[in-house]
């Protein structure tokens, strides 16, 4: 039944949504903060840079006048790349001496100092590797399946391709291989290698694992057809150090009516040690930060508490998310909803929601307001690696921008400040602010 104040309320929501968008697009604060953050450099968990960035974020939240700013301590893994990472063809009639563009996968062990020198066997997938039987023994296993470009959603394409990066070292070791070389999981055809985590499995010999740029992957594949016995030498000096002290950064704007009901807006603050983690996920964090700051700039006090969380260690351990969720659980915190932005700072498309059908129907009714920030849909689907650890929230939500370019940049030297478009990033901040506003006003 229509309530008497409904037309007024709808008008107020439309005006507020428009104000969020206009302020975000004209003032571009989050985009400028991203510039400051990228000056610090990449933020691999446990690194000195990551701590600098954490203190920068805390100071920023305090300067913005948040009601509460918390550093939540958490121990994180500390993997370091080291100075040496190189691959070279060392035996071949035709291409001897040719260097290959490689980078160690995150978590990889080092090679011996003199490197690993071996013949190379190329496969497209684990089934092909298994079919080789003993032929992979003593070889560098080269996983050369290209990114699944046929899918319009690049995250689905990534999902179909990334197994060779994550599990390639285990599969190669089980086949008797001495190292894994993996075609970079990227949509962009260049020669920049893309890192990302590699998993080892207890009981399976750990072997070094590296990514190779797409152009050199094609080069190596062609060279192997001419000369199947060519040899490559791979040298990596990466290592895993003892766990390091780190922190999640949390900033709250207290709710005026329901301060104990939390709406989380989040990104992950760690990045790989390539580029500066601009899209992944500096931008997502700063969209969350700006969404809260937009309330302040518009002099709006939320009815429920808005909580900005910069999670640490999403890339190689999710220790930050586990710590936050565990602590929230033990304190009995009531989370109404949590929104994560970790799909790049591109133009808004929708919100993907883990919640029951009533919750999703309710959020769909908000589309007229969300459309002010070009949000086109709200539908069931995954939220985000970090927020999905939170228990008992009514809605876990992923902000979904256009996906076409994300994997051009992801986990590589391409992921720099210049790769972020200010208007697209700001639209995401506005979309998150509008949704947080509606959640805060209406509940679920
Ligand atoms: Zn990410």
Written overview of the protein:
- This protein is an alpha/beta fold and 444 residues long.
- It folds into 2 domains: 6-78 and 243-442, 3-Layer(aba) Sandwich (Aminopeptidase); 82-237, Glucose Oxidase, domain 1.
- It is 36% helix and 25% strand.
- The chain contains 13 helices and 16 strands.
- The protein has helices at residues 6-27, 29-40, 48-63, 126-132, 154-161, 163-174, 214-226, 278-297, 319-331, 357-364, 367-370, 406-409, 422-442, and strands spanning 68-80, 85-91, 99-100, 102-104, 116-123, 140-143, 179-183, 209-212, 231-236, 239-253, 258-268, 304-311, 334-340, 348-354, 377-380, 395-401.
- The strands form 2 sheets. An 8-stranded mixed sheet has the order 1-10-12-11-13-16-14-15, sandwiched between helices. An 8-stranded mixed sheet has the order 3-2-9-5-6-7-8-4.
- Helix 2 crosses helix 8 and helix 8 (278-297) packs across helix 13 (422-442).
- It is elongated and about 80 Å long.
- The two termini are 18 Å apart.
- The model has no long low-confidence stretch (mean pLDDT 97).
- Zinc ion (ZN) is lined by residues 268, 280-281, 314, 342.
């Amino acid at each position: 039944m229509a309530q008497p104040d409904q037309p007024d309320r709808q008008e107020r929501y439309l005006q507020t949504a428009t104000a969020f968008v206009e302020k975000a697009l004209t003032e571009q604060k989050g985009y400028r903060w991203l510039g400051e953050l990228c000056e610090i450099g990449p933020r691999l968990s446990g690194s000195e840079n990551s701590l600098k960035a954490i203190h920068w974020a805390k100071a920023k939240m305090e300067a913005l006048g948040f009601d509460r700013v918390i550093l939540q301590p958490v121990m994180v893994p500390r993997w370091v790349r080291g100075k040496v990472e190189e691959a070279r063809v060392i035996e071949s009639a035709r291409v001897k001496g040719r260097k290959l563009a490689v980078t160690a996968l995150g978590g990889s062990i080092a090679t011996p100092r003199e490197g690993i020198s071996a013949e190379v066997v190329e496969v497209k997938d684990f089934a092909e590797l298994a079919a080789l039987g003993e032929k992979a023994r003593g070889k560098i296993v080269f996983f050369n399946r290209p990114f699944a470009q046929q899918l319009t959603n690049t995250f689905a394409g990534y999902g179909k391709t990334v197994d060779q990066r994550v599990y390639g070292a285990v599969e190669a070791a089980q086949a008797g291989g001495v190292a894994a070389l993996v075609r970079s999981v990227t949509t962009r055809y260049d020669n920049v290698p893309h890192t990302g985590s590699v998993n080892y499995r207890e009981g399976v010999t750990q072997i070094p694992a590296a990514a190779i740029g797409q152009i050199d992957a094609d080069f190596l594949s062609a060279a192997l057809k001419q000369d199947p016995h060519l040899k490559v030498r791979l040298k990596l000096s990466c290592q895993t150090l003892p766990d390091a002290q780190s922190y999640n950064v949390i900033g709250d704007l207290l709710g005026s009516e329901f301060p104990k009901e939390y709406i989380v807006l989040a990104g992950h603050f760690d990045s790989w040690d390539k580029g500066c983690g601009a899209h992944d996920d500096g931008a997502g964090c700063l969209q969350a930060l700006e969404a809260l700051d937009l309330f302040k700039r518009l002099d709006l006090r939320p009815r429920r508490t808005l909580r900005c969380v910069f999670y640490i260690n999403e890339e190689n351990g999710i220790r930050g998310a586990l710590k936050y969720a565990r602590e929230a659980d033990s304190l009995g915190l009531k989370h109404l909803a949590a929104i994560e932005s970790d799909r790049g700072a591109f133009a808004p498309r929708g919100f993907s929601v883990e919640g029951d059908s009533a919750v999703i129907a309710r959020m769909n009714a908000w589309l007229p307001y969300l459309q002010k920030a070009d949000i086109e849909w709200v539908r069931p689907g995954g939220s985000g690696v970090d927020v999905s650890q939170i228990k008992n929230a009514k809605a876990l939500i992923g902000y979904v921008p256009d996906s076409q370019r994300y994997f051009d940049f992801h986990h590589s030297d391409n992921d720099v400040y210049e790769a972020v478009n200010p208007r697209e990033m700001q639209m995401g901040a506005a979309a998150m602010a509008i949704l947080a506003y509606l959640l805060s006003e209406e509940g679920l």
